[in-house]
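Q&A log
Question type: sequence-to-structure
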Amino acid sequence: MPPLDGVRIVDLTRLLPGAYATLVLANLGAEVIKIEEPRRGDTMRTLGAAYFDALNRGKKSVALDLKSPDDRRVLDALLATADVAVDSFRPSTAKRLRVDADTLRPKHPRLICASMIGFPRNGARAEQPAHDINYQALAGLLARGATRAPRADVASFAPNSSTDAPVMPGPLVADVGAAMQTTIEILAALVERQRTGVGRAIDVPLSEAARAWTLFPSTRDFESACYTLYETADGAWLALGALEEKFWTAFCHRLGRPDFVPLQHARQFDEIRAVMRTKTRDEWLAWFDGVDTCLTPVVERSAEASRFGASHAPAVGEHTGAVLDDLRRRGLL
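Response status: OK
Response body:
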């Protein structure tokens, strides 16, 4: 039996952060009921259908218009059966739709209300609209690395050749970081409720999630001969992460170049790059098979698509009828 078997989560969120948070909980066994606007559903369905499918597989979709009094009654009945409600509205919007914690918790004291908000609720930006790129910009993440002088040995994959211009971000670290923090806080609140019998309100500002990433180095901070990308003879790439001396030594000896060992943390390593261009990617992988070092291929993202398994994301409102029937059987409608 999965650890969250029997836990019901009502997902009022849109786009990536909430979808990923509730996906993690669904993978742990929770029943996730996604509330969608009846006409269009989640905006992510049109902005990135493939990502929507990946992040919402295994969930149920119920179509409700939160501005409709009748649908509001349905939502209230559903929340009476739920353990957790997650939303991603701005504070004023959540209050207007009556899905804010101050409205819900008096009626549903066991309910855990998790709000993924853009900025701290009492801050000057509380109602400002923003997305991941904005949170990263305000956290200083887009300027990190852009002020470093470009190096000739990494120019082929440098994100921006300018020393002054900010760089477009890669991973959506504010979205993903906030999703993970929300998941952790929900799990902690479920444990707390076992002791107290009551739920709690949780706020997770995405801006603060982005700011947390400034505590950590990036891969570029570690870049050196032992921790970089190497192009191979066929134009493919290999990733080497031999930070520990034993892994770097094993790498150099397998290359037949023990003279490279002192170059482990060198910033200029053109001769090593030249050696790595003498074989194809698959030839190098075969050559290093069984060697205790950190060498992997750089694969295309599509090559990993099958890992999501056979479950699929629901159509808009696919489970509305079944969920309403369940509420009627419980005498809640």
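Response note: Residues 249 and 261 are 6 Å apart (CA to CA).
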